[in-house]
Every structure is written in structure tokens, then in C-alpha cells.
Amino acid sequence: MISAKWLVCFSLSVCLLPAVPGLAQDDDMPMHHHDAGEQLGKVSFPISCSPASQKDFERGVALMHSFEYEQAQAQFTAITKSDPSCAMAHWGIAMSLFHQIWERPQPATLQQGHDEIVIAQKLAAKTDREQGYIAALAIFYADPASKDYLKHATAYSAAMGKLYAKYPNDTEAGAFYALSLLASEPPDDPTLANRKKAVAVLLPLFQRDPDHPGLAHYIIHSCDNPQMASTALPAARVYAGIASSSAHAVHMPSHIFARLGLWQEDIDANLKSVGLIEAQKSGAMYMGGHELHAMHFLLYAYLQTGQDVKAKQILEQAQQIIAAAPKDGEDTGMLEYYGFAQAHFPALYDLEMHHWADAMVLEPAAKAPAHMQTITYWAQTIGAARMGDVEAARRSAKKFDAAQDAVRKSKYAYMLEGKNLQRDEVQAWLAFAEKKNDEALSEMRQVADEQDKVGKAEVDIPAREMLADMLLESNQPEEALVEYEKSMKIDPNRFNELAGAARAAEMAHQPKKANFYYAKLLKNCDDGKHSERPELQRAKVELAKNEQ
């Protein structure tokens, strides 16, 4: 699955969410002015440009470290106008175009970055260190027509590694080197080698420089997987304070909170992020993407804690934000989340709520690109399989395959590099619908085993939990309980895991374990005060029996 996201008035004590943001009237490029009290963290990046450019340049770098790429680009562009001989300002623009762990730049963006680097090289920075930054990025942009992204990203990373080795006291070199390791990570690498190497660089620097935004941010991204998530918890709990003016920085800790099942911290972080976006009211389209991203995590956390009304409100508010967006335009960076939210929000909601009949009749949005259509057909297949509608499951699986074939012919073909676990899930559910239970269980177990190595998307349904669901539906409660408990170790505190484990233990005649999981489910859901889900009602009934 793709990694993903995003209300009426904001308050930590109010369940309603902020109103739809306004849209830009002229263009989507943010202005470079900012409030005097702006907090983006502390960055020290000496350059040989005009002394008057130093502070603005460091602001641009700080914005990049929190992935505020559009604002960073505007800041660097402003420097090129006020200080035309500043080579590093053109490096900054080229860096702002390279969204290293969001999406791969398309040819027009690569050409733009290449052109900026050519200007930077012609202007000839006055220090060897600055020339090293420009030369490293020039490697990435060397051939704008090339389709071999990983080759160029890996070469850029190697160059940044050499630059950091040459200047080991340069925190910026270390931060950007670590980020480059994440950008050049091979698809589905079960060893997590690049992530571990990045963390080895980042943690000592973060101890030395605890107010640096990039170090905290990249630790979170490096550890955004089941095996390493707990390592990033200290950074996650301080990053929002380091860069409290960045909506993305305020949201970002929730990647770790979601991994660890820390739902209230997850909710608090994303309510603050959405509130910050609403307070800024920039009108820039990309800010709607940031809002949808935060709302995605809110939707997920509310579903796990039985806050069903709030989850439905997010779903409806996201639809309003999406409906207000222009129908044509860019689909890179945070703008990508408009299409993603339109596809994944309703799919996630229906599947988590066990609204199988609703899931099986979901339809892709008009003109949705193929990689977004796959999300809908994935959900359709699961819904149909859970409803026992074999023909509907077959139709949806066929549509899924056709959409993936279209993805392979599109600019998003790179999304299918590595293991195609989404298709494997579709095929497993299709086999389950066709009563080929052994085949279905075998296929889903393979998906779960692969997924356990690298982790699912933060806001998604674990394959191992699906495996447990299949086992429970197949009247194999002991085996189902084993899989639910395995899933909990990787994706803790999920609603369906706890409810499924409790039911499986009950069916397996393990009342103590059943009561333990029912009690934990109710605790996570505030005793079921905000939900009518049957799992919570059953938990109350079963626990009440023990009190008699």
C-alpha cells in the first residue's frame, strides 16, 4: 500500500474538526515572509553569500528539514533576487524540488533542478564545502532524462557520505547524508540496512544538537518500521516543539505513535497539526494535502479507539476539502494526498468498521489515476469476500489487476517495484471467497511474513490480522489467536486485533485470556461510550458475566 492521510472548529477538548481551508486565488506558491515568532528549530549553515542572506538561507534549510518544500523554494528564490551571486540559493531551490522520500521527481522537475544546479556551478561558491554540496546534488540531477532514479539517488548519497566524512563537524552534511540514505533505500529491503546506517549517523548528532529539526525528523522516518519504532520515541516527543510553526513537523511524531499504538498522543499531535494549518490560512493548495495527511492519522486513531462519530466526521470533512480542490493541476508532494485521501479514507473506514457491503460497492473517483483505483478495488475485493459474494470478488480482483497493469505503463510504475503485497492480499481474499481456504491462508501468511520484516503503511490494516480473521472465519480459533497475538507485537492496540483475539480465545475455551483482551479493548475505547460496535457490546456482556 501507499503510505498515506486528513474538519469544523479545532480544540484539544472538542471532537469537531476545522473548516475547509481556502484555496489560492492566483497561484500556489507561498510567500516568503514569516512571523517574527516563527519556530523552525536551530540550523547553522554558514555560506559565502552576502551576510544579509545568511539568516534567510538558514530559514530555507530549516523549512526543508521539515519538508515544507514549497515555502523553502520560495525563500531560496527570494535570495536569488536579493543576492544574485549566491550559488547556494540555487542549490537550495534544487534541493527543494527533490522530495526525497515522498515521490520520485518527474522529467520536468528533474530538468528544473538540473538548470538550478548549472547556475549554482557557474556562480562558483567561494568555499570548498559549499562546492561539495553543489557537486553532490549535481550527481543526482546529471541526467534529467534518465529513468534510473535509484542509480542517481544512490550516487548522490555516496557523494554526501564523502562530504560528511570530510566535514564530520558539519551537522547539515550529516543530516542530509542520512536523508539521502532513506531516499536511496532499495524497495522492501528486509535488512533495513540504509535505515540503520542513517540512525547511526543521526543519533549522535541529535545528542549534540537537540534543537535541530532535520535530525529529529529523519530519526522518525528512519525508524518508521516495527523493529525500530521505539528507538525514535524520544525524538518523536520533542520534534513538534523544535519546529512548532511547521504543520508537518507537528504531525510527524504521530508516525511513531501510530506504530506503537499510542493513540491519544497520535490524536493530540494531529489535532494540533490541523489546528495550525487552519490558523495559518495560507490558502495554498499543498496545505490541504498536509491537512488531509494529518486527518488520515486522526481517522485511523479514532477507529482504533471506538470514537466512531469523530471518525465519520473526518471522513465527511475530507470529502469537503477534496470537493473544493481544483480538478486539474499538479499531483506531486502533498498535493498527491488529495487523490490518496479520496480513495483510501472510505476504504479504510468501511473495512475497519466491518461495513463489508459498503466496501464492496465503493467506486474509484472520476478520472482517478490507476494507482488510486487499486486502493478501491483492493477494498472491494475484501468486502465482497467477507460478504461471501464470489462473483463480486472475482470482478473486483480482475479490475484490480487491470488497474495495476495501467500503473506499470504510467509515471507511477516505480510504485510496483519490490514485493507486490497488495495484489497478493487481493488474490488471498479472492481464494477465500472461492472457499479455497488452504490456498487463501497460505497466500496471506506469505504476505504477513514479508510485511512483518519491513512493516505496513502506518495507517493500514496488517496482513497478519487479516490472516487471523480468515482463520477465525474458518472456525480455527486457536490458530487465529496465535496470529492475532503475533500481530499485536508489531501493530499494538488495534481495535480489530483485540476484539478478534478476545473472540478467538472465547471460542477456544480460554476465558481468562478472552476477558483480558475484552477488558483491554474496552479500556482503549473509553468503556465503549462512543461506539455501538457489536464487538464492544459483546465485551461488556462477557465481562459482566464474571462480575456476577
How is this structure best described in words?
It is a single chain. 64% of the residues lie in helices and 0% in strands. The N terminus is likely disordered. It is globular. Among the domains are: 98 residues, no CATH class; 156 residues, Tetratricopeptide repeat domain (Serine Threonine Protein Phosphatase 5, Tetratricopeptide repeat). It has 26 helices and no strands. It is mainly alpha-helical. The longest helix is centred in the middle third of the chain and has 20 residues.
Give structural attributes.
disordered N terminus, Serine Threonine Protein Phosphatase 5, Tetratricopeptide repeat, 548 residues, 26 helices, globular, 0% strand, mainly alpha
Structural class: mainly alpha
- As a percent range, the share of helical residues equals 55-70%
Mind describing the biggest β-sheet? Answer: none
What is the CATH first-level class name of one domain? Mainly Alpha
How many individual β-strands? Answer: 0
Which oligomerization state do the chains in this entry correspond to?
A: single chain
Helix segment tally: 26
Summed over residues and divided by their number, the pLDDT gives a mean of: 89
CATH topology of one domain: Serine Threonine Protein Phosphatase 5, Tetratricopeptide repeat
What is the helix/strand order? HHHHHHHHHHHHHHHHHHHHHHHHHH
The Cα radius of gyration reads 24 Å
Q: What is the terminal-to-terminal distance?
A: 46 Å
- Tell the overall outline: globular
List unreliable stretches of 5+ residues: 1-33
